[in-house]
TrEMBL record, chain A:
This is ABC transporter ATP-binding protein. One of its GO terms (molecular function) is ATP binding. Keywords: ATP-binding, Nucleotide-binding, Transport. Pfam families: ABC_tran, BCA_ABC_TP_C. InterPro entries: AAA+_ATPase, ABC_AA/LPS_Transport, ABC_transporter-like_ATP-bd, BCA_ABC_TP_C, P-loop_NTPase. Coiled coil: none annotated. The keyword Nucleotide-binding applies. Residues 4-235 form the ABC transporter domain.
UniProtKB/TrEMBL annotation, chain B:
It comes from Actinomadura parmotrematis. This is ABC transporter permease. It is found in: Cell membrane. Keywords: Amino-acid transport, Cell membrane, Membrane, Transmembrane, Transmembrane helix, Transport. Its main location: membrane. The keyword Transmembrane applies. Belongs to the binding-protein-dependent transport system permease family. LivHM subfamily. It is a multi-pass membrane protein. The chain crosses the membrane at residues 6-27, 34-53, 59-85, 97-115, 142-162, 194-212, 265-286, 306-326, 332-351, 358-376, 382-401, 408-427, 465-483, 504-531, 543-568.
Length: 236, 659
């Protein structure tokens, strides 16, 4: 059974359809890419899946359970975690406390402190553990946000441009981290403008343009798709 | 039928005034982003100035009107923009809000200083000598007619200004994007100044029109703004037509309640509280907002060290003991509230400092605690103190309900409305029964409070009560420090930093907000009970919205994120004020101005004085000379921006060795 199943999701702002009947699935242990030009509706779809925005139509299921009417906190308790395109760190807390808040809200709060120490080590963030999260550079802050999402031990992880601000070697390390997260059985949905990273790590890629899924398939299939090329490069 | 029409005319007249004032409020808010709590106070000052010129000094009415509306009001608006709110643009919404509260508090104190509140100042209505007009079954005085004509003219004038002039276009564009206005060759500063000038003129016009029909009282006139707030909230603080509609609803509701409310002892206050109740309901009817994202300008909430907390608690108890030993009985009554009002101020720390929820009704919660202790603790039983805390906490939880939908300005408005409902209605009720239980409040006057019993001995002396209050403040300070260090404290700070992130991690907003409102109201309730014991007799006025504003301001000046906020506020609010008055009895009015003036200086130090003082002490301890010798290398290669520390060298060396 798919961890995430989105069917026919539609969102409108005023008269403008930002998402138009979008379908998407993500399975455990797999990394699903979601790409598209700016304004395609990727972050809006994440908002709908995580419960921050109600769709005008459509359905969102987590592990086969319809969660369309549930709020973000209840969806999180069903195993969903996410990061944000615009950083949403707890800026006045230290990096360790950012992860600790998440771990204490997760399923194993009794061992939260130990889990956070292990997670800081896994992400290479020990040296920043006591720094205020609000003082971090963009690349480090995005990594902390990923760590905070991992601290709740999610079964479905939505990552919104997590590699923005990272250089080549950092991106490679991040790709390895994503593979290890998926290998643990987590379903990962990745929104990312670094198409190299997407093509490298994703098992399947969905392409959004103007609120509609215009292509879906393996990275190789999608990269040859005429509609995708037109969306990215223009019809000329 | 005649009565209905007559009340309708009165209601529409009042509505016209609210519409004029409310439209000024909306105009300032949408153009500058500042919700001006002092808007009504500006109208109040204009009304007093008009009285001074026309009735006081006998100037002709047209001259007095022209001076107030065309000289004083624009000058005040311009001064407010240039000296206060223009420079405050870089501050967060909460800090700007506090500055307007400071201005409100300062203007009320200034008016009471200049115009003795004990002297009646009747102001004649316009065209008072002319016979009223008859329109069918209704009679309309010339003053009422003029007021309605002015409201229509204001509506038309604003429409022309906003849609047919360059200044209006600039003002509307500034609302959308200040940067784009500059790129398009516009001047957002000019638009802001125009909004402040015009907004103040409209407040002045409203103040002058309503002053002849009410008592010329600084606090009463300033709080008439609650009705104008309600009108503005009907317009979602953006729409002028809906603001006018809201004004009509509020004005007519007040008028018809006056005419048709059944005569009994429980309902007169309802009419007075009606605008605040409507405001509360209008805020509750707001559509659910999206969860708030990160607030980069939020103030700090440092984790208190146990050692520092223990020292602070010991210092509080020591200070209480020393003061109790050296002060005479009279001075104990004067300076006793240092610790009990300190508790009320401390209640802001978890609520506003950690969780970022602005409440203007904490002194009302203290009033709830005082009332409960007065009635249940008459024989000194300790459980009654627990009951005072519990009932205040329950009232706090009630306030939390709108907080689920509101934040920032709207939450401040909601809590202010709650305080006004308590002031004007609930606290004035005679005793009543609910399910066979008799509930008494301030008994429509004052209530007596005695101290608790300890091992059979009644703690009734000023010295004993001062030590008790100091011990309670010390314990509460330790408890708040423990809270900040706890899982729940981390959650509150996380909630303030990003509601959206907190919720998507599985954090429940309802539980967190209700709990923090209840907790802080409980602390305030304890403070209120102790405050009452020290004063021995209290009235509802001592726990009103206006009385609570200076306490709030001093707490903000101290720093809402610091656990020393309670001691700082109690000391700064009670100590220097009474000391100055004792040394120079004529300085009472000047002293009343101090919290407002200090609050206006918030732009210089938004985190408060306590963090600045602590940093100063730390610098002193470390030795300024040694500090200057340290290199200030930013360690951005780690992804963190801060000065270089000695241990960074070791980490760098390990990194190089490992690469």
């Amino acid at each position: 059974m798919a961890s995430l199943e989105v069917s026919g999701v539609t969102v409108s702002y005023g008269g403008n359809r930002v998402l138009d009947g979008v379908d998407l699935t993500a399975g455990p242990g797999r990394i699903t890419g979601l790409i598209g030009p700016n304004g395609a509706g990727k972050s809006t779809l994440f908002d709908v899946v995580s419960g921050l925005r109600r769709p005008a139509a459509g359905r969102v299921s987590l592990d086969g359970r319809d969660v369309t009417r549930l709020g973000p906190a209840r969806r999180a308790r069903h195993g969903l975690a996410r990061t944000f395109q615009r950083l949403e760190l707890f800026g006045r807390l230290s990096v360790r406390d950012n992860l600790l808040v998440a771990a204490e809200l997760g399923p194993d709060r009794r061992h939260a402190a130990r889990a956070v120490t292990a997670l800081l080590d896994r992400l290479g963030l020990e040296h920043l553990a006591d720094s205020p999260a609000g003082a971090l550079s963009t690349g480090a802050a995005r990594l902390v946000e990923v760590g905070r999402a991992l601290a709740v031990r999610p079964r479905l992880l939505l990552l919104d441009e997590p590699a923005a601000g990272q250089d080549g070697p950092e991106t490679e390390r991040f790709a390895a981290l994503l593979r290890s997260v998926a290998a643990d059985g987590t379903a990962v949905v990745l929104v990312e403008h670094d198409t190299g990273l997407v093509m490298d790590v994703c098992d399947e890629v969905h392409v959004l343009d103007l609120g509609k899924v215009i292509a879906a398939g393996t990275p190789a299939q999608v990269s040859r798709d005429a509609a995708v090329l037109a969306a990215y490069l223009g019809d000329a | 039928m005649d009565g209905f029409a007559a009340f309708g005319i009165v209601g529409l007249t009042t509505a016209a005034v609210y519409a004029v004032i409310g439209s000024g409020l909306v105009l300032t808010y949408v153009t500058t982003g500042v919700f001006n709590f002092a808007h009504g106070a500006a109208g109040m000052m204009a009304a007093f100035a008009y009285w001074q010129l026309s009735a006081g000094w006998g100037w002709p009415v047209p001259v007095a009107l022209a001076v107030v509306l065309l000289v004083l009001a624009p000058a005040f608006g311009l001064l407010a923009e240039r000296a206060l709110f223009g420079p405050a643009q870089r501050l967060g919404q909460a800090e700007r809000l506090v500055m307007t509260v400071a201005l409100l508090s300062g203007l009320i104190a200034l008016a009471r200083w200049v115009w003795d509140p004990n002297v009646p100042r009747p102001l004649p209505t316009f065209f008072a000598g002319r016979a009223p007009l008859r329109l069918g079954p209704a009679t309309v005085t010339w003053h009422q007619g003029l007021t309605m004509v002015v409201a229509v003219a204001v509506a038309a004038g604003l429409w022309v200004l906003l849609h047919r002039t360059r200044t209006g276009a600039e003002m509307r564009a500034t609302v959308d994007d200040r940067t784009l206005v500059v790129l398009a060759g516009g001047d957002p500063v000019r638009a802001s100044r125009a909004a402040w000038i015009l907004g103040t003129q409209l407040a002045a016009l409203g103040g002058i029109l309503i002053a002849p029909t009410v008592t010329l009282d600084a606090a009463q006139l300033s709080l008439l703004i609650v009705s104008a707030y309600t009108a503005a909230v009907f317009g979602r603080l953006r729409s002028l037509p809906l603001t006018f509609l809201g004004a009509a609803v509020v004005g007519c509701t007040e008028s018809y309640l006056t005419g048709y409310l059944p005569q009994n002892a429980y309902l007169p206050g309802l009419r007075l509280a009606a605008p605040a109740l409507l405001l509360f309901l209008a805020l509750l009817a707001f559509p659910h907002r999206r969860l708030r994202g990160s607030d980069e300008r939020a103030g700090r909430a440092p984790v208190p060290a146990w050692r520092g907390t223990a020292l602070l608690a010991a210092a509080i108890v020591a200070a209480g003991t020393v003061l109790a030993a050296v002060l005479g009985e009279g001075d104990l009554v004067t300076y006793g509230p240092v610790f009990s009002l300190g508790l009320v101020a401390l209640s802001y720390v978890p609520l506003a400092g950690y969780a970022g929820q602005i409440s203007l009704c904490q002194l009302s919660m203290a009033g709830v605690g005082a009332v409960v202790w007065a009635h249940l603790g008459a024989d000194g039983a300790w459980w009654a103190l627990g009951a005072a805390v519990a009932v205040a906490a329950l009232a706090g939880a009630l306030v939390a309900l709108p907080a689920l939908r509101l934040s920032g300005v709207y939450l401040a408005l909601g809590t202010a409305a709650f305080a006004v409902v308590l002031d004007r209605w609930i606290f004035t009720l005679p005793s009543f029964e609910v399910l066979g239980v008799r509930i008494a409040l301030f008994d429509q006057g004052s209530v007596e409070l005695a101290g608790p019993r300890l091992f059979g001995h009644r703690l009734d002396g000023g010295a004993e009560l001062m030590v008790l209050a100091a011990v309670c403040l010390a314990l509460a300070t330790v408890a708040v420090a423990a809270l900040r260090r706890s899982r729940y404290g981390r959650r509150l700070v996380a909630l303030r930093d990003s509601e959206a992130a907190y919720a998507t991690l599985g954090g429940g907003l309802l539980v967190a907000k209700v709990a923090v409102f209840a907790l802080s109201a409980g602390i305030a309730g304890l403070g209120g009970a102790l405050y009452g014991m020290q004063l021995r007799s209290v009235t509802a006025d001592q726990f009103s919205l206006v009385a609570g504003l200076p306490v709030f301001l001093v707490a903000v000046i101290g720093g809402l994120g610091a656990i020393g906020c309670g001691l700082f506020t109690g000391t700064a609010y009670i100590g220097p004020v009474n000391l100055l008055v004792a040394l120079a009895p004529g300085s009472q009015n000047l002293v009343a101005l101090l919290p407002g003036l200090a609050g206006l200086g918030l732009a210089r130090n938004p985190d408060g004085l306590i963090p600045a003082m602590r940093a100063g002490v730390r610098r002193l301890a470390q030795g300024l000379t040694a500090r200057r010798g340290e290199s200030e290398v930013p360690v951005e290669w780690w992804g963190v921006r801060r000065p270089w520390r000695p241990e960074d060298g070791e980490v760098l060396a390990r990194g190089i060795a490992g690469s």
